[in-house]
């Protein structure tokens, strides 16, 4: 759906915003709010509206229905699948001004937030209460809670704490029909039929807009300790994981290639963890709650060395050193960003990761002999990030076109391994035409039917996730 044929009057819309919302139409604002971190599509929104309340969001949605106007949600605009890109004359609904923490209950360990609360803001608030919000990723300083929920964001702690979905105990949403729904009300147990909350988690704003969320918090972890291990072979990642998980409860298990470290070093001057250069590295994090835990960790390390799975390693001796070791993993994305990476965000069952990665790597290396390929990811939960870097002398559109020609080959492998074409970044526009590699035609038909119920006029983030019939 496009708004280009609709007579849009900013003053009429502003008149509906009675709680202090704003409408922006300046070219710089349109460019800033109409995009996310993908660079494939050029932003071309009609206008940007920044509501201040759920009621204002409801007024915007009702106005859009009357005017047959498409709406695109916008949070921190850190998405990687063009789920928040307005490329076809849509009106952007940005949640930046709905950024309050509304309520907290220590007994329930629940915090009620507006959708524009930044992830790091929620993490810091939890810390002030002596608690912990564990969903964490590189964009925590700018991503917003509503967007995290709409894409069911994952990140670096999934192996222990799960996805965003696991921390949402209530939602307030405005549907595409302009109805306000309050879902689950913060209950841990609520066995009363369909859990509509779950449809909006990961729904990418195609059913309606999330305006508030009730999030549960956890106890704070104690003495988080990091090990970085150099591996002989990719298959050793699973050997090491199985060995450590047999004795320790890991809070993170990440991997990255030697090529990834090279980019981090060049970009951020982060030192190598140790002198030995290895083809792959694993980063483990765990709670060292006693001397016994540390002794167990060192015994496991020695066992892995004896088995020739691990070549070298380092363990943090302080919180500061742990943070420095984490930079090896967390700064990969920013270090390769100047190279306009074409990203694939894939997942399979954990046990199948090495075989799967080797098969994918063989295909992309053959098809892209002149492109640099960077691997990293949350290997402890089966999530791999494939990044293909653009040569400096190649035009962006030519590069993206060449990358897309191999997608079918890659996703056929994903399908054969019964994996996902999008582990945590969402589908948006980038992955929409490949959805059938993960979901059956019957599933997609049901999804379209659900969208029709919540968004009868097809105004909510059209062209993302699925096409309306």
Automatic annotation (TrEMBL):
Reactions performed catalytically: (R)-2-hydroxyglutarate + A = 2-oxoglutarate + AH2
Sorted UniProt keywords: FAD, Flavoprotein, Metal-binding, Oxidoreductase, Zinc
Keyword Cell inner membrane assigned: no
PROSITE patterns: FAD_PCMH
Annotated EC: 1.1.99.39
Source organism superkingdom: Bacteria
Top EC category: oxidoreductase
Domain FAD-binding PCMH-type: start-end pairs: 41-220
GO biological process: respiratory electron transport chain
Pfam families with a match to the protein in the record: FAD-oxidase_C, FAD_binding_4
A GO molecular-function annotation: metal ion binding
InterPro entries linked to this entry: FAD-bd_oxidored_4_C (IPR004113), FAD-bd_PCMH (IPR016166), FAD-bd_PCMH-like_sf (IPR036318), FAD-bd_PCMH_sub1 (IPR016167), FAD-bd_PCMH_sub2 (IPR016169), FAD-linked_Oxase-like_C (IPR016164), FAD-oxidored/transferase_4 (IPR051264), Oxid_FAD_bind_N (IPR006094)
Cofactor(s) for this UniProt protein: FAD
Family affiliation: Belongs to the FAD-binding oxidoreductase/transferase type 4 family.
Subunit structure: Homodimer.
Name of this protein: D-2-hydroxyglutarate dehydrogenase
Organism: Halovibrio salipaludis
